[in-house]
Specification:
By secondary structure, this protein is an all-alpha fold. Helix content is 67%, strand content 2%. It has a domain at 15-74 and 112-191 and 312-434: Up-down Bundle (Na+/H+ antiporter like fold), CATH 1.20.1530.10. The protein has helices spanning 23-54, 59-66, 81-107, 113-137, 156-166, 172-196, 203-221, 223-226, 234-252, 257-266, 286-311, 317-326, 328-355, 366-375, 380-391, 396-422, 424-434, and strands spanning 15-17, 69-70, 79-80, 358-360.
Length: 457
């Protein structure tokens, strides 16, 4: 992913795309993706159960549960269970997105432009091309065109679950590329939701929301000494303030998941030297603590529950399935996610490589990039959210969109699995080489020297 010469072997003065990066980043990404694997499998399982239930003889009970309303109406909080899952529980997922964005920008790969250039450009290509394909297929149908953003999303948890199932030894450089691309993709999705799918905004309510937001940010930054051992736990003060901010954002007309992102972005990503604490890339602040504590709640409960209440679509037998498959909404989503992601991500990466006069890492081929781009075509979670924002819940186009998302995610997973599985032998050789630690210092030799010649095809 890097364009710097100190991270991959090559002739002096050359730039290498998808250099291996630092060992600390490789370890962090590997640990993160392992945790995402379980969440991805739970997500897939919840969606499968919902689809089966919604098309079973007991389908009425599924929709009856989803549509039960509760909450305090004067505060605009009388919502159905399905809406609570989308607006409330999914805010936890977007809080994690905000934490990850903050970390990547402050102390991760997005901090350094040479490392960020390729995944950032690839993410924009992976958003623009699918959207254009969808618009081209649905051109002239103004209602259908409202769903242009549905095929732009990437579901990293689902993608990682696929990697776990196929047992891929995907090289660290490609893993980092996939995660960084997904993080930038999430940022773009957040901006789309905020600016395209928010309406009737109450600016007075937004101004009131600044009070809990400011309090949250100040308390988060005063973690020491407020939240150290023997003092109040962080969540005891921050949770009610965060809920108040979320409620005001929800009432303002902006989609409530944006509140999660904003709160995540206010949390410090590293410790501060001015408080007697070290300040280096390996020293992290409250963001890391929150990530460890909140990620199981997000991946193990919030996202699967959202998927369960969002994925249930009554297809209506073969007639309904035929109608859904012939819909331009479905076709546009499938073409956008399966074809558009591969073309957009791989094509943009190739163009950036040529413009910057860099070379693909000798150990990789462009088919490897295409395999990762295929996995990025698994849109699922955010795509389901955007589909509901575009067409509403229970509408024909909304149901067709969900069928398209299911089909596209399945096809993207299959294509990615086929490509990456065919390269597993080569990836295993790379993994074996990179694990050599001849001096026994805990850091593989390949991260301490650039003299190691990588395996070639």
């Amino acid at each position: 992913m890097s364009n710097s010469t100190d991270q991959s072997p090559g002739p002096p003065g050359t730039h290498t795309t998808f250099g291996r990066g630092s060992y600390s980043e490789v370890v962090r990404i590997g640990s993160l993706l392992r945790r995402e694997t379980v969440g991805g499998m739970l997500l897939v399982g919840a969606a499968i159960v919902a689809i089966i239930w919604a098309n079973s003889p007991f389908s009425d009970s599924y929709f009856a549960i989803r549509d039960v309303e509760f909450g305090y109406e004067p505060w605009h909080l009388k919502l159905s269970i399905g809406a609570w899952a989308a607006d409330g529980l999914l805010a936890i997922f977007f809080f994690m997105v905000g934490l990850e964005l903050k970390r990547e920008i402050m102390i991760g790969d997005l901090r350094q432009w040479d490392r960020a250039l390729v995944p950032v450009a690839a993410a924009f290509g992976g958003v623009a091309i699918p959207a254009l394909i969808y618009l081209a297929i649905n051109w002239g149908n103004s209602e259908a065109m409202q769903g242009w953003a549905i095929p732009t999303a990437t579901d990293i948890a689902f993608a990682v679950a696929v990697l776990a199932i196929i047992g891929s030894h995907l090289p660290p450089a490609l893993r980092i590329f996939l995660l960084t691309l997904a993080v930038v993709d999430d940022l773009i999705a957040i901006l789309i939701i905020a600016f395209v799918y928010s309406s009737g905004i109450s600016f007075s309510t937004l101004l009131w929301s600044l009070i809990p937001l400011t309090a949250y940010a100040l308390l988060a930054r005063r973690r020491r000494p407020l939240f150290r051992a023997g003092h109040l736990p962080a969540w005891l003060l921050l949770l009610p303030i965060g809920i108040a901010f979320w409620a005001l954002i929800h009432a303002s007309g902006i989609h409530a998941t944006i509140a999660g992102v904003v709160l995540g972005f206010t949390v410090p990503a590293r410790l501060r030297a001015d408080r007697g604490e070290p300040d280096s890339d390996s020293d992290h602040g409250l963001a890391e603590l929150f990530e460890h504590r909140v990620r199981p709640l997000s991946a193990g409960f919030a996202v699967p529950v959202f998927a369960f209440f969002s994925a249930g679509v009554a297809i209506g037998g073969m007639e309904g399935l035929t109608a859904a498959l012939s819909s331009t909404v479905t076709i546009g989503i499938v073409a956008g996610l399966v074809v558009g992601k591969i073309v957009g991500i791989t094509g943009t990466t190739y163009l950036v490589t040529k413009v910057t006069r860099s070379n693909l890492d000798p150990s990789l081929r462009w088919i490897d990039v295409a395999g990762v781009a295929s996995l990025a075509g698994i849109g699922f979670t955010v795509s389901l959210l955007v589909a509901e924002l575009s067409f509403g819940s229970g509408t024909d186009m909304g149901d067709h969109a969900k069928v398209g998302i299911f089909l596209a995610s399945l096809l993207a997973a299959i294509v990615g699995a086929i490509i990456l599985s065919s390269r597993n032998k080569h990836y295993a050789a790379l993994e074996e080489r990179d694990a050599v630690d001849s001096d026994g210092d805990g850091t593989p030799d390949v991260y301490e020297t650039s003299e190691v010649e990588p395996p070639r095809d």
